[in-house]
Design brief:
There is one protein chain. With 313 residues, this protein is of the alpha/beta class. The protein has ten helices and 13 strands. It is globular.
Amino acid sequence: MDKTDKIFVAGHRGLVGSAIVRNLESKGYTNIVTRTHKELDLKDQVGVNKFFDDEKPDVVVLAAAKVGGINANNTAPAEFAYENMQIQCNVIHAAHTHGVKKLLFLGSTCIYPKMAPQPIPEDALLTGPLEPTNEAYAIAKISGLEMCKFYKRQYGDDFISCMPTNLYGPHDNYDLSGSHVMPAMIRKFHEAKENNATAVELWGTGTPLREFLYVDDMADACVFLLENYSGEQHVNIGTGVEVTIKQLAETVKETVGFEGEIIWNSEMPDGTPRKLTDVTKLHNLGWKHKVELEEGVKLAYDWFKENIADARM
């Protein structure tokens, strides 16, 4: 990429997209184009084509998606499949027809089989059944990865894909009805501290193993791939380091300064026992994460405190 390239970041207001914009700007990429959902509905094929006609972006980062928690995925799988595939098909095909020179598509950990080997290598894709609770979203994301591969194979388009692990950081979702484990813990411990509560209840046993990547590290890896990678296979983005949910809870509790008790509700589900990405490929390309968990949790909590009035609660 050139510093003067016009770069369209789709989904720039979210956790992922906003971090990618920050990273691009920090590296001197100033010609960045964004649109809110109200300004451009990516499900609208005519509108997407008009945007590409008018703006003529050189580079596209596709971080926009319809996302939700387990309940949303279970109750509206048709919408999760249809709307995400609409977004992907419209943007990827428009990028091809308008001669975009580079596109990066972002996947999700749910693309891998439920019983994938651990750590999960890139070639585990499509080797077994998916987790049923988010199968529709996973199939949509898989179709996006495969589309990029097919456009590259048939037309020579420089369309690449990456698969980030569990992310956290600025602009995360702190709505307890749909948030992921890290922001949920930050909010619960913060509110317990503010309300002088004596205990915080968390779901499960605390034994599952998970990997967490600070979102600004993820963004740095994405820009690194845009600058240095043109392979057909998607690339895992992660730390290659895992912790138990109990260890994570203790880290968040200490960071927040909550001095009460943690009560584990073992009647609630634990989820998958272990989910760790194999990041050998990314390391061999020359990129490694910088922010370790303790520092990342502090950065995330500092942002939450400073932006609590505007955070997604």
